[in-house]
Amino acid sequence: MTDTLRHARHLIGENPVTGVAFALFVLLLLAAVFGPLLVPYDPLATDSSASLVAPSAKHLFGTDQLGRDIFSRVVAATRLDMTIALSSVIVVFAAGGLSGIAAGYFGGWTDKIVGRLADTIMAFPLFVLAMGIVAALGNTVTNIVIATAVVNFPLYARLARAEANVRRDAGFVMAARLAGNTDTRILLFHILPNILPIVVVQMSLTMGYAILNAAGLSFIGLGVRPPTPEWGIMVAEGAAGIISGEWWTALFPGLTLMLAVFCFNLLGDGLRDIVDPQRRT
Amino acid sequence: MDGSPPLLDVRGLTVEFATRRGTVRAVDEIDLTVAKGETLGIVGESGSGKSVTSYAVMRILDRAGHIAAGSVVFSGIPLHNAAESEMRDLRGREISMVFQNPRAALNPIRKIGEQIEDVLIRHNQATSRDAHGKAVAMLAQVRISRPEERYRAFPFELSGGMCQRVVIALALACRPQLLIADEPTTGLDVTTQKAVMELMTELTRQRNMSAILITHDLGLAATYCDTVMVMEKGKVVEAAPAATIFTAPKHPYTQRLVRATPRPGIGLRDLVTNPRPLPEMAPVVPGRLLQVSALVKRYGETNAIDGIDLHIDRGESVGLVGESGCGKSTTSMAIMRLLDPTEGRIVFDGETISDIPARDFARHPMRRRIQMVFQDPTDSLNPRFTAARSIADPILRMGDSKNLRAQCEALARQVGLPIDLLDRFPHQMSGGQKARVGIARAIALRPDLVILDEPTAALDVSVQAVVLNLLEDLKRTLGISYLFVSHDLHVVRLMCDRVVVMRAGRIVEQGTAQQVLEAPTEDYTRELIAAIPHPPQEQA
User: Fold this and answer.
1) pLDDT digits (tens, 9 = 90+) for B236-273
2) What is the mean pLDDT of residues A254-277?
3) Which residues in chain A touch residue B359, judged by CB atoms under 8 angstroms apart?
4) Which residues of A touch B371 (CB under 8 A)?
5) How confident is the model at residue A90 (pLDDT cuts 50, 70, 90)?
6) A251 to chain B nearest CA, in Å?
7) Which of the four pLDDT bands, split at 50, 70 and 90, describes residue A281?
8) C-alpha distances in angstroms, B313 versus A31, A56, B447, B479?
9) Which residue of B62, B332, B368, B380 is the best one to mutate when testing the A interface, meaning the one whose CB has the most A CBs within 10 A?
10) What number of H helices and E strands is found in chain B?
């Protein structure tokens, strides 16, 4: 463990961008946990006297048509967006990752079923598929999570399958079998820990995608319902205002969204360096 | 040597590598010379700097390494500060190299003939008109039969030995003056090794070329080289004519290396310095432990093993010998119950275990009685488990996990693994230490039969000597039986009571170790024995 920490410190020293990404990630987490408690205004409180106020010391990011403080709404939305992203990543890891490992390890029928399932999902344009799922199941946060998980399933299933497949005949797997481990135990306690680092990198990258996906769905009206603060809806609501000069209503939620996705993508690259044994000398 | 200057003259060569923990000196002020027509052997264990020396001569060190001091002069040209463009011209044309893994050295998607043509054309040794003819002639010279036809073969269609011949053809195509061979036969069977080495010696002699053979095998170097240089930790400890290095080694390290090399006429304890006496053999109930009859494993149309009969008694060591692809691994996997045989019976201690499907065997009480030590100590340890966790795995699954830590420590002591290494991960341990962890895991449940699958093939010879002695001690104190799978007949002779020789899925000969190895009745066995390098003998 201390070894990994030292290695991480070395890599951050070599590539400061990774450090920035980690800092940003911590900031996002703090905003998600404590944000709603710390914001200056109630994100849902309307104030018709202060509608569409430009950014100022009083309202850092300005206010929207209903006079709600955009800064408070952007910070408060972090919790919802992060929750959606994190839960979709967990769901897709559990479904795609585990079935992929099983497919790679057992081969045969398991492999065929998982493989064809992934192929079927990949046959659709992914965002259209996500739209379809949310439209069919209903406009709830749970369904956004499910839709995001489904469209990412093939990626995880294939990655995990490939990694499990090369380890299937490794000496340590055979040794585990000799030690009396059943196939399930070998999968969960011997193979999974070995491919976890690789999957974690993918999870970080998916986080960014999941946030975009949720925001995208909300933007076209298929996601979270107003007045809940959410980056996608806020961009959608503010988009009309850009023409009439109220640029701040769409810009700040959009900027935050971009920064969050950027952070997760950089984090993924940094994690890849940390877990890659080739870079460990 | 006469007055003419040597072909290669290396003086005070020092190579340093920049690592995260500071500068590491891999080669430390070494001197060497290779005369025209001479073959020099560089012998050393892993980390001795023998390969780095040759990379420095070729100037192909990776970006972390550089020549810190010294000179490398090749037929009057100083190589240590030659420009890269000059080196590119020399490599392949004047100095060429043969690497350890022939398959990795060949381009997998190009026909072998075309690869030889590429080299010829690049160095202006042929035009596109006569390249084809020259490439075919080259293939014929390295004794590839039907060269015209094989010209169109891809590397994956050829065996390892054939690939190495193609690599040699590539290396010699431009008639270089110096050939550097870095472990050219590691991973090849003994008979293939013999053929490749003889081919190389003959071709270099024919062309009056010089050669450097880099190997960990002192016996191989002493057999095929004129001069042998022994390296340890980046320094040359001894350089002597091949005839005397084996018979009269001067430096203590060379003496230790010679001593650790298995050779005819010695016992297991002669391999190590200051051996403890062999422990008393634990009392075992005499009788048959394992009986394999008419075992067949079929893959599609071909039989990987084709009717095997063999048996192992209690407390006995049986050697299973054969070249790669002869079915010895399939046989051991079937006995291990990791795969289901197509036909035949495996009876272990009176119970027919071949009836239990391999997938259910993990939960069978018999599982704990048959264990295995794997060939590659690195590959067989879970990279995410500490040594203690690896050793504890069988105990957790099938044993009594009371006082787990104490059990692991007792096992570590038994296999000579320092207790403080128990909390380390595989990448923090040396090859020998990992081998000990693998052995501790195999004996953790006190099995009756342990299959040793080339347990020392990946280890340095001095480590091999210690591990072989450890295995013998454990066998005696615990009264276990061994099935020793190997292609190294010297090692088998030291370790085994009986030997079984396999070829193409069948048993060709079996008998006591002495009988089979000293008076073989089959031609194939004789061929195998003749193929082992025969270095000059020690005088009694």
Assistant:
1) 999 999 888 888 888 999 988 888 888 877 888 888 87
2) 82
3) 183
4) 178
5) very high
6) 45
7) very low
8) 71, 91, 14, 11
9) B380
10) 20, 20
| Cβ contact B224:B522 at 8 Å | no
CATH architecture of the domain with residue range B1-94+177-184+210-261: 3-Layer(aba) Sandwich (3.40)
Rg (alpha carbons) of chain A, rounded to whole number: 22
Residues B393, A172: C-beta atoms closer than 8 Å: no
| Amino acid letter, residue B141 | Q
CATH class, domain B289-531, is alpha beta
Chain B residues with CB inside 8 Å of A175's CB?
372, 374, 380-382, 390, 393, 438, 441
Phi, psi of B388 (to 5 degrees): -60, -40
Q: What is the mean pLDDT of chain A?
A: 84
Find the helix or strand (DSSP H, E) in which B105 lies.
helix B102-105
A171–B376 CB contact, under 8 Å: yes
Q: Tokens for B33?
A: 């010379």
Residue B362 forms contact with A (CB below 8 Å): yes
Fold designation for A2-41+63-279: MetI-like fold (1.10.3720)
Say whether residue B140 is in contact with chain A using an 8 A CB cutoff: no
Q: Which value does ipTM take for this structure? A: 0.79
For chain A, give every domain's residue range: 2-41+63-279
Token representation of residue B12: 């005070």
Does residue B179 sit in helix, strand or coil?
Answer: strand
Domain ranges of chain B: 1-94+177-184+210-261, 98-175, 289-531
**Cα dihedral A170, A174, A179, A183 sign:** positive
CB neighbour list of residue B383: distance below 8 Å, 6 or more residues apart? A172, A194, B425, B426, B427
Query: Which tokens belong to B265?
Result: 């006429």
CB distance B441–A175 less than 8 Å? yes
Whose tokens are 């013998």? That residue is B472
Please return the burial class of B134, using the count of CB atoms within 10 Å of its CB with bins 0-12, 13-18 and 19+.
middle
What's the first-to-final CA gap in chain B, in angstroms? 31
